[in-house]
Amino acid sequence: MSDQPSVFASTTPLAARMRPSTMAEVIGQRHLLKPGSPLMSLASPVAQGTKISSASVILWGPPGTGKTTLAQVVARGSGRRFVELSAITAGVKEVREVLDKARNDKDLYGVSTVLFLDEIHRFSKAQQDALLPGVEAGVVVLIAATTENPSFSVISPLLSRSLVLTLESLDDEDIAELIARAVSDARGLAEQVTITETEIAQIVRLALGDARRALTVLESAATSAITARQHKIAKSAKSGKPAKPKITIADIETAADRALLRYDKDGDQHYDVISAFIKSVRGSDADAAIHYLARMIEGGEDPRFIARRLMILAAEDIGLADPQALPLAVSAAEMVAMVGMPEGRIPLAEVTIYLALAPKSNTAYNAINNALNDVRNGVVGGVPNALKSSNFAKAQSQGAGVGYLYPHEDSKAVVAQRYLDDKVLDRRYYLPKEIGHERELAERWPKLREIIRGFKRN
């Protein structure tokens, strides 16, 4: 058998080998790489001994969008020293050591340092505070990477001293270009395998805009194709130069038997997807709601959290337009708690579809909010004497409970009676809609109100 192909020889992952060394090689993020943009300016060569410091930046974006790559390219292009720390392993001690070394290099040799801090959102406040002196004094150019919204995960003093640049997931054309380059490039697979547009499209679908994932799947599929070819040659014992291995759909499926959905249940995806889910149900789009439900389930979201949000939605957005919505949501939540997953997906789907298609009314939600607003603003008035408790000594002598009319003594169980002080007597909180079950309440409530308010005012 011939020597093993070099795809097996390197212990460095394909994604690392294919990392761009210049801005010209970077694929995607065109909105950040325009001439004169902060990143391009930061990547420009720095003259030896210069006293000019550049602004620090925070790169915010999904995994596999090039945050580490951009930091390395900036350092290489500008001639700065590159130091990388991970917030998972580094602490205050390591940060201070880097800052001390950077200060010495700048003072003694005029060499500026780029400090790349990966996953800065994992740094505590105290750890982020340790960065401030070096950033503020321009000792280092901080390039921090995060997959979470910096507004919530980065302390304000550090945020105010940095430019926040948002990275976007790579589009399909970018991922396809990256795959083609990796197949042909000497740093990558060096044309040891062939791949058609069909297989490239399959990897693109699996990548979900993540360059690292695309290259990981490609490398694994190439290994699978080359290994299968070697076994076939060894088994047949045929002589002559074998045909170049071809990556097949089967190789790709072996490499990635399922698409790993990018969903950070502690980060922005958590908030974005649950927001889209709730708004889809509220908007009566059952298909969209089920799609976002599937994304949350596949991403590992806590099903009890989903069930709680559905209960809230049933009360807030459907309310009295369909009184069965809330009990159904509560029942689904109880079943999810009892049976767990994966069976819990079924009641979640059932209640999601039911709530999406149910008539919508937020009148109960509006009623309590408007009443709370009055109470908080002092629009309260006193409790009428007839409604006060009479279950204590001398109650009646103080007028408590005197004159109360028991509604059940009336044939319709409703009587003309003062339930509110004059200060709030004419306030209207519940304004029913002419929709679903609430249509009946919209007819009934004005009639009841007319009877109730039929008493003579003092």
Q: Mind sketching the topology for me?
A:
Layout: H1 6-9, H2 14-17, H3 38-42, E1 56-60, H4 67-78, E2 81-86, H5 92-109, E3 113-118, H6 125-136, E4 140-146, H7 150-153, H8 156-160, E5 162-166, H9 172-184, H10 197-207, H11 211-236, H12 249-255, H13 268-282, H14 286-298, H15 303-318, H16 325-339, H17 345-357, H18 363-376, H19 438-452
Description:
The chain is an alpha/beta fold. It folds into four domains: 138 residues, Rossmann fold (3-Layer(aba) Sandwich), CATH 3.40.50.300; 85 residues, Helicase, Ruva Protein, domain 3, CATH 1.10.8.60; 90 residues, Zinc Finger, Delta Prime, domain 3; 90 residues, post-AAA+ oligomerization domain-like (Orthogonal Bundle), CATH 1.10.3710.10. A five-stranded parallel beta sheet has the order 2-3-4-1-5. The N terminus is likely disordered.
Strand order of the main beta sheet, please?
2-3-4-1-5
Work out the helicity level.
Answer: 40-55%
Number of helices: 19
> What would you report as the Rg, rounded to the nearest angstrom?
33 Å
Describe the structure concisely for a colleague.
This protein has 458 residues and is of the alpha/beta class. It has 19 helices and five strands.
Which labels suit this protein?
alpha/beta, 458 residues, Rossmann fold, Zinc Finger, Delta Prime, domain 3, disordered N terminus, 48% helix, 19 helices, 4 domains, 5 strands, Helicase, Ruva Protein, domain 3
